[in-house]
Amino acid sequence: MKVVIFTNAYDPIVSGVVTAIRFFRQGLIDLGHEVYIFAPDHKDIQDRQKDRAEGIFRFSAVNLTRQLYFPIAVPCYPGLTSLLRRINPDVIHSHHPFVLGKVGLRLARRLGVPLVYTFHTQYEQYSHYFPLPQNLVKWAGRKAVRDYAQSVDLLTTPAESIAGLLRSYGVTKKVHILPNPLDLARYERIDHQIIRNRYGIGRRKLLLFVGRIGREKNLDFLLRAFARLAEEFGDDIRLMLVGSGAAEEMLKKSAAGLGLADRVIFTGAVNYEEIPLYYGAADLFVMTSTSEVKPLVFIEAMAAGLPVVAVEASGSKDTFTSGYNGILTPEEVEAFASAVRELLRNDRRRLEIAQAAKESAARYSIKNLTQELLTLYKEAIAEKG
Question: What is the CATH class of 2-181+365-384?
């Protein structure tokens, strides 16, 4: 099978969506299929010739905001239709409803092949990045998703609860649930000391967050909850925020204002190949965001056997059974801090949840989920006729 993917983000950008696309690509290639990626250019690409040799094609791109570097494709690629005709794809898969998603839709119609769309992101939760009236930006985001979803041949999303969200947008098309995959082998036999030694953590308790350091991640709430824990644990606890983003300086000031400057570690962006080491160093993974669809970091934490405490929201409810393979709390500072406190004080309970989480992670192997993706592709092709 020949699969063409259109995405508004790809390597070297680090995000859950990019990682999911990369793992699905590898899963398809391992099974003997051909995969072609069309994505924006990026200033940090080291070898563009290697990209082309591997079937990765880049659109010219511009950066529209000073808050963070995120290249937006210029949706013009001379000779694109001819190139696609030579590739002769069986299916086109889009991961965004706008920019290159629109290009993918147009080409799918032109070539008469099915278009599959995966809805990954609650775009209205990111409206603060646009200096426009917020209600207008949120409405435009929901409308873009609805109109695009209604026009595709097959619609998927990683999380069950998001199917309900799509219906609230006015989407009437059937929604197929396909979780994001993970390379589980990378989370076996992790060295637990490398990161602890690197940051001088020693035997202190370590809470870990991995992700973009943005306002939509609700990290100010996490700092306030951590302040409650720091009052009790004193110098014997640390919070590590792994990632970079527009809210980093603001959060550093907040941490200092709470008297936590020496107990909150901001690592900045890290090499993705080292990410398992960060999970291996921690005692708990903490997530306070309510904007997630089904974050890959949850699956990474589970694969590493790291217990998760998260605010109850669509992404967490679709991943965890609270009290079994994770702990979910209301979006209340004391409730969240109390759940973390209980697991840090109860080693036996923490290990029980860790074991259940690791067993649950088997569901998300690249091999298993790539087979499910192929079944959906075949369904879309058959319905297209």
Answer: alpha beta
